Write the structure tokens for this entry.
Amino acid sequence: MRKIYLTVVFLCILSVLTGCAGKTRETASKEGFYFDTVIQLSVPEDHEELLDGAFAICEELEETFSRTLEGSELYQINHRTGPEVTLSDDMRTVIETGLQFYRLTDGALDITIAPVLELWDFKSDDPQVPDADELAEAVKKVDAGSLSLEGNVLRFEREDTQIDLGALAKGFAADKLKEYFEENGVDSALINLGGNVMAVGSKPDGTPWKIGIQDPHKERGEVAQVIEVTDRSVVSSGTYERSFEKDGVLYHHLLDPATGYPKEVEAAQVTIISDSSLLGDALSTSCLLIGEEAGTELASEFDNVEIQYEE
């Protein structure tokens, strides 16, 4: 169920501000490593000073949503000493979205998947299939229905519940960065969080941004299609990038909360175009997990959302 952090789906930016190379005379760009992936932010040169502030926001959000960073807010939630915790506003927003999509997907997207995720290491040089008994024990701990949220207070019915927000955090970060740029007078920028791309406005010449969508059946960088967007988010989720093969069986990162094993899915990739990247994050993972018919119906419940499946 976890969204791929290491550029799960390669969203190729065909045009950054004025050219295809991604950095031109009119562009100021900065790269960094946050949310377990390489990110790139690009703004017009006259707003270059805002990039440091944007990366400070990334640092703050890393210290909020990282499950493994000791001292992060999520780490403290997972290592709580009582049945209730008071959340920051940012954490409340993301957990509220997670619980919403838990209900909308009948449990297919479950933010309490953390105990199962800890047994799978898709980033290892030699990944292994977890022990079946250990996996079965971990699955017993997965149940977002045992959580209740009232205001900023999150209540746990069980002591062994742990949360992972990998399916949602980058989307929230993209929205937060867009808000920061707009509040500081930027009307043209590109936010690339490795699988989540947010276009602020249009290109400086008034034309739409061109975002290339990775072909899930070909090598990284080979584009299946080009999407033109203005002031929109593009998020893709797929099974093909964070995965490994063992004894002729392909294991991918989209885990079934009911079994702990990779979910059998119909499509190789789902792309969501929306105004909110948090919504795009939640929908892209959810719609891949629940299948094309149910996913298309789910996406239709939200305004101004486009969905594309790639078999």
User: Anything to note?
Assistant: Helices lie at 50-65, 73-78, 89-104, 114-117, 132-139, 169-183, 277-290, 292-299. Residues 146 and 297 are 26 Å apart (CA to CA).
